[in-house]
Specification:
The protein is an alpha/beta fold and 449 residues long. The protein is built from eleven helices and 17 strands. Helix 6 runs parallel beside helix 7 and helix 10 crosses helix 11. 54% of the residues are buried. Its EC number is 3.5.2.5.
């Protein structure tokens, strides 16, 4: 594949394990002015060896030969709570995007809540963009919010560039971002469908949620049953079918959701769904007493449930794996599951966590790239992202898929060193991350999309 001989590259990267849309294999990727201008398969056999370089003899500013280190497209994480402005002491654009780059993520989409003001109108989006400007190590896009009373703001937010609209069906945990009831959900869907936008939904039925009966993890898990997720997914599917809106279910933790999701798609409903690294790699059985770094909503469930989520990924019912990176300050993670803040910080370790478990289950790097790069980019309409393809942004990752490392929370880049992955041995390490053909370093060169 080539863009023509006049496109002399300024960067050439070679790898025996390049993950392309066609699959994993040896390739040479040529970059000029931040975009991929050519992708050449290369022969690693004894006859031609690695000397079959289409750019041999050309004056190329930078050449990188990764050998057996894999070359991936930069990951796209469409579920990140940056929290700035307003709660920057929880997380901010500078720290979140550095963590993203270190984890092989080159584009994030920021959630509309937990910042002050929340992104529920065009003025609030402008405030957030000003807060992010000049701080970002990777590219950043934004979700808007759909809350009671802001239906009239949604079209203007869409025209201002948000990738879609998040809503909650149950309390969000912050009073400035209240949930939608059924009538409000229908109204939001009708408005968003009128301009062919996207609605993304935190789907738990509040009627089936309860306050935990004690401070332990078992009581917390029992207070947010999988049936609450299933019931909410069924409601979203029904209303999406009636209104024609494009809808997406966030952070599926319960395998009970798989059947109604698959049924809705068979019936022609424009519905998709995601899950998260913690639901695919952690289990309720392993949560230590008082270890509220494992608390999130919806919760981490049983090992058997985890196995079913992997089946949902393999079957395509779940299309995306994204972090739901939702940090807080350590003082909010009190050793009481009923009282602690719910949120997991995994932006930097998501790739290695998922690859560790995926490889164990027989999946390849091409599967992981589809779930964590290509499909999230498509969901958010991020053209030129999520694939190593001619014309796309040269967002690339050198990933040593066979390396092993132990997670040290203190060495992670997000603002507060709290993560359930601390001390966990994972497979794979990010060696280098390139954003539009330039290695990510200390200078923040991310673009606000």
């Amino acid at each position: 594949m080539s863009a023509g001989a006049d496109q002399r590259p300024d960067l050439v990267i070679r790898s025996r394990r390049a993950v392309l849309p066609s699959g994993e294999g040896p390739a040479t990727v040529a970059v000029r002015d931040g975009r991929i201008v050519a992708v050449h398969p290369h022969d690693t056999g004894h006859d031609t060896g690695r000397d079959a370089d289409p750019y041999a003899g050309l004056d190329v500013a930078e050449r990188v030969d990764l050998g057996d280190v894999a070359l991936l497209p930069g990951l796209v994480d469409t579920h990140v709570h940056v929290n700035e402005p307003g709660r920057t002491h929880w997380e901010g654009f500078a720290t979140a995007t550095r963590a993203a780059a270190a984890g092989g993520v080159t584009t994030i989409v920021d959630m509309p809540l937990n910042s002050l003001p929340p992104t529920v109108n065009a003025d609030a989006l402008a405030v957030k963009r000003r807060a992010a400007a000049g701080q970002c190590a990777v590219d950043v896009a934004f979700w808007g919010g759909a809350i009671p009373g802001n239906i009239g703001e949604l079209r203007a937010l869409h025209e201002a560039g948000v990738r879609g609209f998040k809503c909650f069906l149950s309390p969000s945990g912050v009073e400035e971002f209240p949930p939608l009831d059924t009538a409000g959900l229908r109204a939001a869907m009708e408005e968003i469908a009128s301009f062919d936008g996207l609605l993304i939904v935190h789907a738990e039925d509040p009627a089936l949620l309860a306050d935990p009966s004690g401070p332990g993890y078992a009581e917390f898990l029992g207070s947010r049953p999988g049936e609450a997720e299933r019931r909410a997914v069924e409601r979203v599917a029904e209303l999406a079918g009636e209104t024609g809106v494009r809808a997406h279910i966030l952070h599926v933790s319960s395998a009970l959701c798989l059947e109604p999701l698959a049924r809705a798609v068979r019936e022609g409903v424009r519905l998709s769904a995601e899950t998260c690294p913690h639901y695919l790699t952690l289990t309720a059985e392993e949560v230590p007493e008082g270890a509220t770094r494992f608390k999130c909503c919806p919760p981490i469930r049983s090992a058997a449930n985890r196995d079913e989520l992997w089946r949902g990924l393999a079957d395509g019912v779940l299309g995306c794996v994204v972090s739901d990176h939702s940090p807080s300050t350590p003082d909010l993670k009190v050793p009481d599951f009923a009282a602690a803040w719910g949120g997991i910080s995994s932006l930097q370790v998501g790739l290695t966590a998922v690859w560790t478990e995926a490889a164990r289950r027989g999946h390849g790097l091409d599967d992981v790239v589809r779930w964590m790069a290509g499909n999230p980019a498509a969901l958010a309409g991020l053209r030129g992202k999520g694939a190593i393809a001619v014309g796309g942004d040269a967002d690339l990752v050198a990933f040593d898929a066979d390396a092993v490392h132990t997670v040290d929370a203190a060495a992670l880049h997000h603002r507060n060193p709290v993560t359930p992955y601390h001390g966990r041995t994972l497979r794979g390490e990010v060696r280098t991350t390139w954003l539009r053909g330039r290695e990510v370093g200390k200078e923040p060169r991310g673009t606000l999309l």
